[in-house]
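Anyone up for a design puzzle?
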């Protein structure tokens, strides 16, 4: 089971109270990224929201750093850790915008981008951007088909229900011939979408038991990534046995990549936690990372 981390500072998902992260800097993010890269973690993340309505801030959180700028900075300070958008809202962008922006990031990072996408659920944000909301699911499916065609080529051509293009050049496009795509969401429909159109599923807001139940009812192909979040903050420094039990439960549920976040009260505490988890899970042995 691989382990990625929810990058600290860049979001406050769910409106969680910010402690040291409130005034943290890009240098702090860089230190976390360098440590995670050195320790053998699989990926870092950055989410996307353009503007959160005040009425939603308590439930969704108000802070969302832009993923392209954030992951571009992280790419320059790391060598191998993957850079995952978890998640990019498809309806906010034309597919070729995503190809150009994240194809460029794939060049900058030497082929380390994972495109985590979702169809979105915040109608006020769609309205703010003038994006259609009611058919966002069908539009998202069409966008994913268009992305799969367009990401690896400088001369993309696609004819779909909502998106059609051809006779143009997009340079750069992705370095990877098959950029991994993961689908986020919290419904069975998101799992169906992932199994049909993507390479992995990265749900949120559902329990590990629920995810395992849904997966057991599906024909999950070999190599499909099941990226599940830990159900509670991990504390490998203070509670190593409880952390080990969580890892075992996640693996038994079919998790191929754990999406980890931690109990922490300072940058130094956060760094201690990711070191402790790497040692506990043997990331250095699994990935050949220096200890």
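Challenge accepted. My sequence:
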């Amino acid at each position: 089971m691989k382990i990625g981390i929810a990058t600290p500072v860049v979001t406050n998902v769910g409106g969680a109270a910010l402690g040291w992260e409130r005034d943290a800097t890009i240098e702090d993010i860089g230190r976390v990224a360098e440590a995670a890269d050195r320790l053998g973690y699989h990926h870092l993340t950055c989410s996307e929201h353009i503007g959160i309505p005040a009425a939603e801030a308590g439930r969704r959180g108000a802070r969302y750093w832009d993923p392209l700028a954030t992951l571009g900075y992280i790419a320059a300070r790391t060598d191998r850790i993957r850079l995952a958008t978890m998640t990019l809202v498809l309806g906010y962008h034309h597919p070729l915008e995503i190809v150009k922006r994240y194809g460029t990031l794939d060049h900058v990072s030497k082929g380390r981008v994972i495109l985590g996408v979702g169809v979105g659920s915040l109608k006020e944000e769609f309205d703010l951007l003038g994006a259609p909301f009611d058919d966002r699911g069908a539009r998202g499916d069409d966008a994913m088909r268009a992305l799969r065609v367009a990401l690896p080529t400088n001369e993309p051509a696609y004819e779909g229900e909502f998106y059609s293009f051809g006779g143009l050049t997009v340079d750069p496009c992705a370095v990877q011939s098959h950029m991994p795509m993961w689908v986020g969401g919290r419904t069975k429909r998101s799992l169906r979408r992932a199994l049909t159109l993507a390479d992995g599923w990265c749900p949120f807001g559902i329990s590990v038991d629920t995810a395992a139940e849904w997966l057991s009812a599906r024909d999950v192909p070999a190599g499909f990534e099941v990226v599940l979040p830990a159900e509670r903050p991990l504390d490998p420094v203070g509670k190593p046995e409880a952390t080990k039990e969580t890892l075992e439960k996640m693996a038994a549920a079919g998790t191929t990549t754990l999406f980890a976040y931690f109990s922490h009260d300072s940058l130094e505490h956060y760094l201690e936690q990711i070191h402790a988890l790497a040692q506990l899970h043997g990331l250095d042995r699994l990935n050949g990372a220096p200890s």
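A detail worth pointing out: The chain has eleven helices and ten strands.
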